[in-house]
Amino acid sequence: MGIEMSDAALLPFPAPAVDSKAELQWQRTLGFHRNWAQQRGFLGRPWFVLGSAPSPTIPDRLPENTAYVYVKYAGHSAKRRGLPDADLTLLLTKTEPQQIAGLKSSNTLIMGRAFPLSAKLKRLIGYSRSNQAELYRVERDQFIVRALGSLFSGIGEEKRPSNGISLLAYGLALGVPQIIVAGMSLESNGHDYNGVGKKRRHVAEDRAALKEIAATYPFVSTTEENLNRLTGLPLYDG
Length: 238
Fold this sequence. Notes:
Elements (H helix, E strand, L loop, with lengths): L6 H4 L10 H20 L6 E4 L16 E5 L3 H6 L7 E5 L15 E5 L4 H9 L6 E5 H12 L14 H12 L4 E4 L20 H14 L3 E3 L2 H7 L7
Parallel strand pairs: 1-2, 1-6, 2-3, 3-4, 4-5, 6-7
Helix pairs in contact: 5-6
């Protein structure tokens, strides 16, 4: 069951005036996603959030009733290390079937610029029983700003932090009580699921965002020594 909390308790940053059009739209967006997460059973539980950085540090123990939350194709890393299938996976509309072949996820948060009419109708009627929810890119930015106070644009080469940070902001805005971060890096290039060695993007933006998380949300920890050293996120001691 989910933990019911007021919006004021969830978010540390002041919200715009409640009578503004933008604020009303945000409340609808937040309400839809919170209700969806509640219905699907991963709200009010600790989250183990796994990214795709090479050689993730997997803890020996996690809190009881932990939800396994994977960023894009991190399910491949999880599968190789004997972790459960995802309770929630963040994917993109451009994700190709071969990129997630062999992976299972109880629920999918799919992010994109536009969605079919059926997705819009689902929002209008508040339907939340589907195992997939759509997150528009503009809503992604709203979750980051509401949870972290900024998009951190202008400090590096990108306009916003990475998808992994977006997923953390999503969980924080929903009111997840504990988050344990693994498989995210500010130093290593490439991805654990292939040997291409692609240069890591969003480094400056992710560093700033993670520093804000460390300063604002004491219940977020990491298994990764490099994140602890570079951002101040506490090391998970489970």
